[in-house]
Design brief:
Elements lengths: L1 E7 L2 H13 L7 E5 L15 H5 L10 E5 L3 E6 L1 H11 L5 H8 L4 H12 L3 E7 L4 H9 L6 H10 L17
Antiparallel strand pairs: 1-5, 2-4, 2-5, 3-4
């Protein structure tokens, strides 16, 4: 079993990837989504019970979407096993909760920091657990949806002085 993770600039792009993975036969239980959506900026994470119906779909992973407050990121829409791990860490006040969620999913620490920072800055992350024989199909679906170029994005972050995700920092608010 491999975990394949990609980041996307928008929640809508990530949502389409989840839909495509489910349509290709990947079980919703093997897919996770954590991301920022415009509705999260004005929401209270405690009011997320119905967000799955609004932002998600009628079945599968997206029907289970809810709002989650992650330290250093703020409110996000989240569903799946990765979201459950992050929620447990956030509820327990565990330092590095979102980093721990990504590393427990098999990501190395630099990748976990990158994915957490991407979500903090408004992006979304999709992870899928796939058997080795199905991993190429998952990668094709995820890569076909124009994920963020990790190396280019990391270079941009580093130009700004970023070195790692800080869960004690304020959620990112882009300049308008």
């Amino acid at each position: 079993m491999r975990t394949i993770t990609r980041s996307y600039d928008t929640y809508d792009a990530a949502r389409r990837v989840v839909d495509d993975l489910e349509a290709a036969g990947f079980p919703a239980t093997d897919i996770s989504l954590i991301g920022r959506h415009a509705s999260t900026d004005d929401s209270n994470a405690g009011e997320g019970a119905g967000i799955g119906a609004t932002l998600g779909g009628a079945a599968g992973l997206l029907a289970g979407l809810g709002l989650l407050a992650i330290p250093g990121i703020g409110p996000v829409v989240a569903a799946g096993w990765l979201a459950s791990t992050a929620a447990g860490a956030a509820a327990g006040g565990v330092t590095g909760g979102v980093i721990g969620a990504f590393t427990s999913a098999g990501e190395d620490e630099p990748s976990a920091n990158y994915y957490a920072e991407t979500v903090r800055r408004g992006g979304s992350v999709v992870s899928v657990k796939a058997d080795e024989d199905k991993a190429p199909a998952a990668e094709a679906i995820m890569d076909g949806a124009a994920p963020i170029d990790r190396d280019a994005r990391l270079a941009d972050y580093r130009k700004e002085g970023w070195s790692r995700f800080d869960d004690r920092g304020e959620p990112y608010r882009p300049l308008i």
